[in-house]
Amino acid sequence: MDLDSFITSAAILLIVASLMITLFKHLGLGSIAGLLVAGIVVGPHTPGPYITTHVEGVRSFAELGVVLLLFVIGLEIKPSRLWSLRREVFGLGSLQIIITALAITGFALWNHWHWKASLVMGLTMAMSSTALVMEMLHDKGEVASPQGSAAFGVLLMQDLAVVPMLALIPMLAGPGAFSISIPGWKQLGIILGLFLLIFTLGKYVVPFALERLAHQRNREGFVVVMMLSVFLSAWAMHRAGLSFALGAFLMGVFLSVSRYSLQIEAYIEPYKGILIGLFFVAVGMSIDLRSIVASPLAFVKYAAAVICIKIIVMGALCLIFGMNRSISTKISFLLAQGGEFGFVLLSSAKVLSVIDNDTFVMGIEVISVSMLFTPLMAKLGNYLAGYFMPKKSAEDIISIPDETGEIKRRVILGGYGRVGHVVAVLLHSSNVPFIAFDNDPARVAKGKGDGFPVYYGDIANPALLAAAHAEQAALVVLTVAQEKITLKAISHMQNNYPSIPVIARAWDLEASGKLIQAGATRAFPELMETSLRLATDALRMVGVPVDNVDLLVSDARRRDYELVNPG
């Protein structure tokens, strides 16, 4: 493809994607459904202009977005929380795969499919889309919710199960279709060795490198090391026969305890967003409407059977594992689609002649279309779950803790210098939960030494505010000395979270006025407060009565603050 064709194709894609995203968001279906439909419109199976016929190549490149998504998810899940999910991963996840695979295999056999093709379809359709589900949960801030945690546990087990499934397909092809070049014990040793490598990198090497780069204020180096760690860990797991995404996820988990975790997430978000968007477009490109129209009844029958079986099995298992009916309903509808690893399994089976081309096309279409309808199924699941929602009192709702055990409506503190430290101490003494950020590693280290939740990051970065869940904050306090940074932070808060109050530190009345004009709720000029305190002590020391001093100072403060803080 020459440069002119590439630019034209990119322009068409961007126009169609922006239109579809706008439309589907307006309809309340979210941007993912819009991206999937955009892929159908610009794909090679739809008449009119298309981007490329190399759908597999586009999807392979776009899977880097899945890698970055799982890395971000790992950053949000600390090792202790991952261990707490072992019941969902190995119990719920394992049973879901086994029972769903058997049920779909049985349905295919009942419809007179060959037993090998039936088994491949059963294993393939037992998988769900990690990329789609986790992106939806991430967008809604529900990764740490009960349904989010359970769904993630199941998806993680599915990612692990891809390895034995890929090993099984050559066996189905018969003798001579495969050869075992590496003994099982040696392969296990390689996996453990690479796992140890990722642990060492994520726990010690990468944080050390980021620490040095942060001290140097080397943002470019920071981003390069961060991206290198992600893709190196992904490559390591791939070399061990596991998925790229699993390696990236593990690196994210190990880095989640680092004080740089939220800044890492802020830096990586733009790259993740672009690539994951391209991934969903590539999935849409895989949908061949003509093949569906050619045999609509067969497609509807198999797609409906897969979705219904997955909903029933998942819902029943969730109930057995002690979840209430509301959460069980949400999870079952959320995980009812096919998954991206299904493309890999079906391609492997086709290459080895385990399935024919018709079965391959049917499988690809069922996976792709089920992913397309996932936003609708999720909305339906949430609607039905409303009938089973346990009633809560107002007191219960107010006191719900988040995943860290803190009250959700915490204070976000920007800056941990001398002023920020005082604010942090007073907040802590008053039992007010808070999280603080500073772009000076020495101050971050001091905050950690003080026992406070202080993280490395630029408070003026909108991605950092999003990572810190600014939409849930009770208040944002800006104590940084740089007026430019304070103004940027206020502007981002005003544009994205206008209902959240912001109070800020300023140097003088002029600066205070600028901050108020930018959108700060309150701004306190440091120079004026120092002057007033100096004048107060001076008047008292020369014998002016205390009441007179207080009256004079109060009047001066009132007049000056009215100039910049009206009301």
Question: Nutshell version of this structure?
Answer:
71% of the residues lie in helices and 4% in strands.
Question: Describe it for me?
Answer:
The protein has 26 helices and six strands. The model is unreliable at 176-181 and 391-407 (pLDDT under 50). By secondary structure, it is mostly helical. A six-stranded parallel beta sheet has the order 3-2-1-4-5-6, sandwiched between helices. It has three domains: 1-50, no CATH class; 54-172 and 194-387, Up-down Bundle (Na+/H+ antiporter like fold); 411-564, Rossmann fold, CATH 3.40.50.720. It is 71% helix and 4% strand. Helix 3 (55-76) packs antiparallel against helix 12 (261-285) and helix 7 (130-140) runs antiparallel to helix 8. It has helices at 3-26, 30-42, 55-76, 79-84, 86-110, 115-125, 130-140, 146-173, 184-215, 219-239, 244-255, 261-285, 289-294, 296-320, 325-334, 341-351, 357-372, 374-385, 394-398, 418-429, 441-449, 462-467, 483-496, 509-518, 526-541, 546-564, and strands at residues 411-414, 434-438, 454-456, 475-478, 502-506, 522-525.
